[in-house]
Structure prediction request, 413 residues.
Amino acid sequence: MSTITCRAAVMWENGADLVMEDIQVEPPRAGEVRVKILASGVCHTDWSEPRNYPAGFPVILGHEGGGIVESVGEGVTNVEVGDHVIPLYIPECRDCVYCLSQKSNLCGKIRVTQGKGLMPDGTSRFSIEKDGKKVPILHFMGTSTFSEYTVCAAISLAKIPKAAPLEKVCLLGCGITTGYGAVMNTMKVECGSTACVFGLGGVGLAVIMGLKEAGCSKIIGVDLNPAKVPMATEFGMTDFVNPKDLPEGVDTGAAICALIGDYAGAGVDYSFECIGNVKTMRAAFECVHKGWGQSCVIGVGPPGTEISTRPFQVVIGKAWRGTAFGGTRGRTQLPKYVAKYLDGSLKVDEFVTFTLPIDEANKAFHLMHEGKALRSVVVHKHEGDEEVAAHRAAHSGGAGGSGTAKDNAAAAE
Ligand code: NAD
Ligand code: DAO
Ligand code: ZN
Prediction:
């Protein structure tokens, strides 16, 4: 195994645009795997997290990737060369106190080094030649999928069926799995429940997909943007509340509770906050049913912010919960989610609004901020690579050539 030179989108300093560079990727060490990444979804966290990224710069972002194992380090047994994989920003070691508890997916095995942008042995596999010197580049979230090749801990890879198009199922590496998993794993929503979803972006739609599958009797969506309504309705939303359109004196919570019943304490059985705003977190919490309602925080609030409510809201039996990656144990559950996608029972293609070459990763961020993209997928070129060409030929004649992505983009205009 030798060092590979390949293309990657690099963030050189805090908040700067990404720059395409030729970088070096060292071979995997013990317990590590080098992965050829074909595509990566572009998520909010790729934008927000590197603002003041504590680990430093330069860094290679990206955490919603799909790829093929290129080489494995000593002692790796869970994947082999040629396997198709989704990198996991929450690993699954099956050995730490969290994994063994079966109560949480927050595997702690490599948390400290991952937070520092390093591999578990405390070093980086990425570097770049600048002025004749080798400059190390940091990893991000243990995944760094904005590089043609990345190195991950073996416990951070979910092996998935080869029949799935990597340019689509890469999205199961974060947003879709988070929303769907929040319903199925974290909240375990029962058939016949009522629910409310704040924020109808990619995560919110994935929540709605889960709520519909769970058999909810009412699924209320809340968003400031009416353009989100048609797709949310297609996914299973039954009622919509736009806070901007409410009559004077009626707040969002009151409007939601009124859709459930005209009695004291009426509210939804479950609510989900998929925005990342502490005000909507409070509204989502307070609109759940007295006595048993539960609210799940999914959105990541800005650093330094706090949530609040009157303590009596808790005294009367409302519960505040939260979820990371939808409570999903990646290595165990992602292969099953991909199988559900393949048998048509889990939507993924519908989330892809734009497919762009990796060189246009900055444009993908702009589309995200303009509210035009549920998800953009950026695709690595891998010029002359027959394995990649064969995979793309088997799926819609090439990355970005699928009718679904184009149709979704047209619908988003
Ligand atoms: P998105 O921007 O695509 O969607 C957010 C939606 O909220 C948009 O439709 C927007 O119009 C709406 N919105 C914004 N402000 C609003 C307000 N005040 N009231 C009502 N609607 C409002 O974002 P996304 O990709 O769906 O992600 C949602 C959140 O989930 C983000 O905070 C993201 O960081 C977080 N997230 C968390 C996890 C996790 O593991 N917990 C994983 C992935 C994403
Ligand atoms: O174990 O303490 C821990 C942290 C695990 C990582 C949780 C990440 C949750 C949210 C990330 C936002 C979307 C990618
Ligand atoms: Zn673990």
Q: What stands out?
A: The domain at 180-325 is CATH 3.40.50.720 (Rossmann fold).
